[in-house]
Structures are given as C-alpha cells and as structure tokens.
C-alpha cells in the first residue's frame, strides 16, 4: 500500500537563519514579517506586520531583524533530503518547506510505523527543526493533513475524505480564483467541496482544480520526480547552547556521521575524506579535515578518527554549531565479510594505519610497494602512501621478497657448482629471466628461489654477462 509522510517545516525561514529563543527574532521579506520566534510572538508580533509595527511593539526590547534568505532555505531543505534518503529512496521536496516521503515500502525495514516515525522524529530533533506531520495514501493529502491536529494528521485508519473534511479551503492557495468562487457560494471546508458533484465542480472551478482533487483522493496518478542524491553531502547540527569542551562535540559527531554513512549506503557510495566545520558563537568557521587510507562508509571508524583529531583542538571561542561536508564521493566497493564467524574477524590493517596517521601525521607511515619496473632494485620502493588513494596497478611481486639488500652480494661457489651463503644452498624455483637497461648498462639475470637446510629462503640470481652468482634478497 502506498503511504506518504509529509514533513512540513513551517519555521524554516526562521530556523535556517537563527534558532535563539533568548531575544525576539523576526524574519522580514519586503519589510513585512514572514516568521517570528516565540519571544517575538509574546510581544504581539505576527506574520504580515510591517517593520515599523514591529519596532513599535518591541520598543523596550530591540528585536533582531533578519532578511529572508530563500537560497539558504533550499540548501537546508536539500540537507534534509540527504538525511531522509537514508530512510526511503522515494522522496521529493514539495513547495518551499516540505518533504514528501513514500514510507509504505520501507515499513518492514523499520519494523512498523511507530518505530519509523520515532526514527524520523529523532533525526529532525537532532537537527533543531520544528516540523508538522501528515500521513495519507497520497502526497497531496499528506501535505494538507499536516495542517490538521497531530492525532488527526496521523490517523491512517480513518477514511481519507473524513480526515480531509474539516480542513479550510484557504489551504488551497495554488487556486485563489477557484477558492474565492467557492467561498462566495458559501463553501468553506474541503468537506463542503468534496460533497459536490464532480461534473458541476469541474465546470465551476476548472480542469486543474478538478485534477488536484482527484490526485488528492488517489483517483488519478500523481507523478513527481524522485529525489536524486547529489555529488556531495552536507549536514549540520545546532547545539542550542555554547559548547566549550571538546568532549561535548562527540555526540553531535556521532549523529552526523550516522547520517552521512546511511546516505552513503543508500546511494552505494564511499568516501576517503570528510571535513568538519566548527561554527563559533561569533559565526567564525574552523575546518578540520579527517582522512582515511581507503574509501568506506563505516561511521564507527570515522568517529574514532574524528575523536583523535578533536583531542588536539583548542577551542578559542565557544561553538554553537557543527557542520559535516563530504565532496569526494566514489562508487562503493563490496566488502568481504565472514557471515559465519564475524567475531573472529581481525581489524582491517587500513583502520590501524588511519589511527596512526591521525595521531602521528600523514607522513609518519611508509609502505612497501611495487612499481612497473623490470629491475628489482627499481621495482620495490618504500614511501608514504597518500590516504584515500587507490592501490597501484603495478605488476605483483610474486615469488620476490619485499626487502632487498642495498646491493647484490656475491655468492661463494665450489668447483662442483655448489652455492654457499652461511651454508649450502639448493635452488628450489626458477629461473625467471630479467633483461633490461640495454640502452645504458645492459643487465641480463636469471633469478632463482634458493633454500638452506634450516628452511630459510633466499632470492639469488646468475649474472649471465659477468657469469657470477649473487644474492639479492631474503624472504621473511
């Protein structure tokens, strides 16, 4: 069954600019009040008032007047879309302050409607937004029911026409002409309109109004473009008070990382770098970049690395907000997980390297790797590995030791051809011929894996030009 949840953020113009309740805050558009917080409402300030009236009502208290920023509102709505995408892939933004979530297909995932609504409420509460809910079989009905009392807005067991009937016609602001015509005829609620014959209503109000009502009741399909995940992720957490200790940041860090990783898993993406922004009381920004050796979507690993980085922070000013951004997203790679013995799995080496780099610095860890070179002394190299970089595509160092001697050492050879290096050696594998550097100093070698009586293996070669034997490396 199709089931839509509408999240209407009526205070979005105010809450995306300021969330303080310590002083009157008013948002203006064209010198008219658009939104006001509770402190301003207590002074009698209402929507639609002029700026002059606001000053007259709040002469004893200087209100904070802010100009509406519709671009910022849409950015905040997009951040909420990123969060909601971790709940359901079927969603879209509606009007300028609503999200429409199709939740009928994911009720089993959350083990019922109550736990899903609790998850949604917790996510919105952690972001500091106030919200009105509407629940219905169609998105337009869910939007209208978000204006109803909470118990009625979520009463999905009642017939939809009965739930819509008490709602006033003024909510249908997309059709002002039709609404005025119906009011003059003495109709004031949706119930009055739905009781009319559809043919007579169509002649009076037009085709678009009739189509809206049909989509409202589920009689016609209501097609909307689904939300598509962006190429980057951004989310914010507002504390509502001044944070002065680093440890107080960690609960917000966990919530934001869980939101990020839920988004990454839903979009089948991974990342190797995240960026934190600490928003000060004075609106200053401080960035902290956290990097990982490999791309992944494990919030616990990111939480551990972030905690290490935040240990060294010195908060010069109090923090009132925390923002998480992630711009370098890559297609996700499947992980090898033991389904039968998960408790016996070792910690991935990459996680250990990440922690060491976070504590000691990016250049503190060096790795052994292979280059696409024929000569072994040039192929094996030791150097720092850029976190987040993909592994090199060089040929594998099969049957070769990673650790080579600084220079090949000559081997003693008896008259019978027996090789010695702290004892007699026996050739076990080979040869592997390597010829290179003909343009400068020609090299021609036959490499073998040799062993002694104790079982130790060595990498030796016969120089075909000098006609001598050398040892080049020792296997661990």
Radius of gyration: 34 Å
Beta-strand percentage range: 25-35%
Distance between the termini: 62 Å
Runs in which pLDDT lies below 50 for 5 or more consecutive residues are 388-397
Q: What sort of overall outline do the alpha carbons produce when their principal axes are compared?
A: elongated
Number of E-type strands: 21
Quote the average pLDDT: 85
The class by helix and strand makeup works out as alpha+beta
The helical percent reads 25-40%
How many helices does DSSP assign? 16
Sheet having the most strands: 7 strands, antiparallel
Could you please describe the fold and organization of this structure?
This protein is of the alpha+beta class and 476 residues long. The chain has helices at 12-15, 38-42, 51-57, 70-84, 113-126, 139-145, 150-153, 160-164, 176-184, 190-194, 198-205, 207-216, 250-267, 299-311, 349-360, 376-379; strands at 4-8, 25-29, 32-36, 64-67, 91-94, 98-102, 132-136, 233-243, 269-280, 285-296, 319-326, 329-331, 366-370, 380-384, 404-410, 412-413, 419-420, 424-436, 443-451, 457-463, 468-474. The protein has a 7-stranded antiparallel β-sheet, with no helix packed on it. The protein starts with a strand and ends with a strand.
Give a short summary of the structure.
The protein is of the alpha+beta class and about 475 residues long. The protein contains 16 helices and 21 strands.
